[in-house]
Amino acid sequence: MTHRFNMRDSLLAAAICLCSSTSLLAQPVITNVEPRGLQVGAETEITLSGQNLAKGSRLLLPFPVKQETLSENGSSQLKLRVTLPESVQPGLYPLRILNENGLSSPQRIGVDRLPQRAFSAEQQVLPVALSGRLVGAQILKTSFESKKGDVVVVEVEANRIGSKLRPVLHIYDSRGKQVVFAQRSRSLKGDARCFFETPADGVYSLEMHDFVYRGASPGFFRLKVGNFDYADMALPVGIPAAGNRPLRLIKYGMESEFLTEEKQPKHGWNQATVSSPLFSGSRPQVYFSPHAEFLEVAQSATPHPAGSVPLGINGRLEKAREKDLYLVDVQPGSKLMFDLLGRRIGSPIDGKIVLRNEKGGVLAQNDDRKGEQDALLAYTVPGNVSKLVVEISDSSALGSKSHIYRLGVFDTRQPGVLGTVGQGTINMTSEGTVHVPVQLVRNNYNGPVKLEFQGLDAGYEVAGDVIPAGSDVGLLTLTAKGKAPGIFSMETVFEQDGKTYRADVFGPGSSTSGALDASRKWLAVAPMSSKKLDVQWSGLGNGQTVNLGGQLRTRVRVTRPDFLKGPVRIRLITNQKIPKKRVRKNNKDTFVDDLEKTIRAANLEVGKPTEEIAFPIEIPSEIAEKDWELLVVAELLSADRKKVLFSASTRRLIIKSKRLAAVELSEGKKITLPKNGIVEHRLAGTIQRADSSQPMRISLVGLPKGVVVEPVLTEAGKNDFSAVLKIPVNAELLKLKSLKVEFAFLDVGDATWVMARDKAQKLTISLAAEPEKKKADQKTPAK
């Protein structure tokens, strides 16, 4: 039996069943991790607290680990011994819990070679990473011993791993004199770091508190103390995608840096490779570029010849009031964009761009963009200009080793595609199919786009990995053929004019990941072995032809085990970009979805373990004649129908739309209405048919309340038609300026089924002229 989505008769029964199976349906949730770090090349005992941490739960990280369960406390706590291989790069990584009920959302943790300890007031042996919590007005204290001349770095990871703590650090010597102080820094995303050279042998005290002594929850942190390496930025920011390239890794606020080298070819945004044995913290973001990248190696009073567009320019403002000059070869008439990266990658630079001609005259400038301090400048090159001088400076006239930047210069007419997905953790039913929506933003390219995968386990079958020409939505599906979880990334790939273009597909951002954070590329997927939900098209295959303006007769079959109770909602997903229409609301023009021009189906509900239901799909008459992609998603709902517990989808179905018939009106495009009565309005015209002989129903649409006009049915097989519509006139009808007439072609065997519709046509309304009043007889004047 099929139920509409608003049916409530099974709520009570569903609630009872769901309460008894809550632990089965709910995915694992992590509320705390102790410690907030793992040690490379060593064992770390880690305790996870949360919900639905079922027996057999294990960690999922972006690299392989050895793990052993030490203890389990029901479904609320799990203790593991985790061993990391020597090959793991240090950094901040997403940690998830995996069990038969799926994957948890990620918690970010630190990975390095520092010994991991719980925070305590006792004297610490350096180097060390201390994990703990700080809330409210707490002041946490600990201490460490250091020798004269030793370099000590103290750093808090809190905001960068998802905490709300606003840390402040104080270091005191053995006499209680403050040696160094640090508070939250924008370049550290609100965290704090300080460093100092020990002035004398002795025991040093460390205090930490919230910035306003009102630490919010969660207030977890990871406090690192010792002489370890770190880096916040890389110079250059952009490097060629292939070939070896040395990088300078820069420590924010210090006049020091160290070298590393990228040897493996990569693409897009990645984290820099580090070789320092005691590196800790997030690794700098590096862009592996498909075009030339110029690096400023020395300050010059004359412009550096940087090359031609497209181009990346990498540099640094080392001194106050410094200005870097570059000579860029350009094409006359090109429409260029100059995009400065600085604050978005952690640099303190408040960048300014000035464009000059070769004689030094200012052509254009910018020092800001909406909501950001990174400059952005659009410029159309005049027809007589082939070279531009680009000047980069700091709006505050500051400079340092940390004031790095990358200026991207590109022609806005060049093709490009950006892809995003709305979820970074993908849970799917065992041996089922899941829909992964991919949204595209296109620039000067409207052709097909291929999705390519890196790191996806062979146990997943991919479909819908080619997004058709003209579409901004990809109906990508993954089907689980095995049980292996996986972490993978995607790229968009297309070719134009013999050149291949690639771009990262990014997952959603979060409080711990910036707009250009390479960790957003990595998506996690796992089948839930305890959950089975399957939905399939019934008796339909690809290549189905549908008529514009008609209905696609479809059926879907939903199956699930008996123990999974509750309503399952069925809804349609397509690759159509939903059209908009302008409406007047609250005396303002606004745009809303135009459902009459949207491929659509009503949401339905099913309640039985196995059920096959009719699922008719409306095909608008005004969409293009082309291939369209559809799939159906089945969602198991909570008892209150407010939450989707998990979902499954059909495979992608490709349909081809065509116009069955076209109608041309030769008579009746204008309606003349009297003040009252019934008007008999005649319509006549011809039908151009495409191998069809269906009868046609003629109806008026857009009629006001109280006006009913019976539709007229024409004879089947006829190409000429004539019909009379009887229209009762009332005051509301007289207010209209037009109506629309709709032409629907009906199934010969079932007149209730609309096979197709032609585009509705406009009929203009005019008012009948009033008859002239007879003049009164003139009286003969008296003599």
Structure, explained:
- The chain is an all-beta fold.
- The chain has three helices and 67 strands.
- Strands 37, 38, 39, 40, 41, 42, 43, 44, 45 and 46 form a ten-stranded mixed β-sheet that branches.
- β23 (245-250) and β24 form a beta hairpin.
- The protein is globular and about 110 Å long.
- It starts with a strand and ends in a 16-residue tail after the last strand.
- 38% of the residues are buried.
- Residues 1-24 have low confidence and may be disordered.
Write down the overall geometry. Answer: globular
How much of the residues is beta strand, in percent? Answer: over 45%
**pLDDT < 50 stretches:** 1-24
| Through-space gap between termini | 96 Å
Radius of gyration: 34 Å
Task: Describe what is shown at a glance.
By secondary structure, the chain is mostly beta strands.
From the structure above, extract its key features.
10-stranded mixed sheet; 783 residues; mainly beta
Write the layout of secondary structure elements.
Layout: E1 2-4, H1 11-20, H2 22-25, E2 29-34, E3 37-39, E4 43-51, E5 58-60, E6 66-73, E7 77-83, E8 91-99, E9 102-103, E10 107-112, E11 116-118, E12 123-124, E13 128-133, E14 139-146, E15 151-157, E16 167-172, E17 178-183, E18 193-197, E19 202-210, E20 220-226, E21 233-235, E22 238-240, E23 245-250, E24 257-262, E25 268-271, E26 285-289, E27 293-295, E28 304-308, E29 311-316, E30 323-329, E31 335-341, E32 351-356, E33 362-366, E34 376-380, E35 387-394, E36 404-411, E37 416-421, E38 425-429, E39 433-443, E40 449-454, E41 460-463, E42 466-467, E43 473-480, E44 486-496, E45 499-506, E46 523-528, E47 534-537, E48 544-547, E49 551-552, E50 555-559, E51 568-574, E52 580-585, E53 588-593, E54 604-606, E55 610-614, E56 617-618, E57 627-637, E58 644-649, E59 653-658, E60 661-667, E61 670-673, E62 677-689, E63 696-701, E64 712-713, E65 720-729, H3 731-734, E66 738-746, E67 754-767
Parallel strand pairs: 3-10, 11-13, 12-14, 22-26, 27-29, 28-30, 37-45, 38-46, 48-59, 61-67
Antiparallel strand pairs: 1-54, 2-4, 4-7, 5-8, 6-7, 8-9, 8-10, 13-20, 14-19, 15-18, 15-20, 16-17, 16-19, 21-23, 23-24, 25-26, 29-36, 30-35, 31-34, 31-36, 32-33, 32-35, 37-39, 39-43, 40-42, 40-44, 41-43, 44-45, 44-46, 47-50, 49-56, 50-55, 51-54, 51-57, 52-53, 57-58, 57-59, 60-62, 62-65, 63-64, ...
